């Protein structure tokens, strides 16, 4: 992202609003560091790159506007994810029907995924299996409840610690764990099914 | 935990969910079992591998999309949006204040203007009445006269000429 585009527009406000120094005073650096992760989380959650991009910008804008409330109780990443999560909630709440219709229609094309599957070996078969596995997880994620999906993505894509997930979502640890167990059980069952079919 | 008792799905999930740095007596026991039990280790790998693939793939995909998008032109409108809405809100507030100030003034003006208007109407009324009366009187006079004033010159076409005619000697 061109941070220069965002920062100069906002920086004049900094002198007025920021009484206490916050990490967001150096907004360009914050954007540079956290934008890829915020975008990825939004993209995987929404499966819409344009929307993910818009909401990524909105995340940083909201972070900037409410930077005075950042007390450093959690990491910047957690704080930004919390904002992004609220934006997803707002969006899916207001566009629920359209959102789910689009998600159902948007079938993930394995060939599209295959292009991004890491391939340490050059065997075409192993690449295909890997692409199928990733596609399967995409499909499973689509069937999870919004809360389960969020927790799953935070743990297994964002690699957040359980305590961070609790802090981000405000969901108790026991509930976070049970959502993850259920999501993993779902993946395991479908994965076993796929392996049987392949054999 | 003995090697005969394989880990349950819940226990395997416990290992997967926990971070590598996290430790607890229970987790340590599971990890120890996994080191000595290839069957359970395979199960764990079969779960862990697709998850790792999914993470790596989505990361690569998101990075590629992110890199292909031009962020600069899209950033500015989003950044200026709150300023715009703040300006709009400011203008609306100013308009509301103006209205709030203008309405009592207008009402006051209207109230003070009404008696003046009434007075003007009252003062202009007699002159109108006088005008009307004069007009009616004129109409009356015109109607009551035997010959309308526009036809007055035709009433006696010979008037003023008869003496002249009579005094003129006839030659034939």
Give short descriptive properties of this protein.
heterodimer, A: 199 residues, mainly alpha, 10 helices, 76% helix, globular, disordered N terminus, B: 172 residues, 6 helices, 0% strand, rod-shaped, disordered C terminus
Description:
The complex is a heterodimer of chains A (199) and B (172). Chain A is an all-alpha fold and 199 residues long. Chain A has 10 helices and no strands. Chain B has 172 residues and is mostly helical. In chain B, 78% of the residues lie in helices and 0% in strands. Chain B starts with 8 loop residues before the first helix and ends in a 5-residue tail after the last helix. In chain B, 9% of the residues are buried. Mean pLDDT of chain B is 70; it is low at 73-84, 116-124 and 160-172. Classes of the chains: A mainly alpha (199), B mainly alpha (172). Chains A and B meet through helix 1, helix 2, helix 3, helix 7 and helix 10 of A and helix 1, helix 3 and helix 4 of B.
Helix and strand arrangement:
The complex is a heterodimer of chains A (199) and B (172).
Chain A: H1 3-17, H2 27-46, H3 49-65, H4 76-94, H5 96-105, H6 110-114, H7 124-143, H8 146-156, H9 162-169, H10 173-198
Helix pairs in contact in A: 1-2, 2-3, 2-4, 3-4, 4-5, 4-9, 7-10, 8-10
Chain B: H1 9-17, H2 25-36, H3 38-68, H4 72-144, H5 152-155, H6 162-167
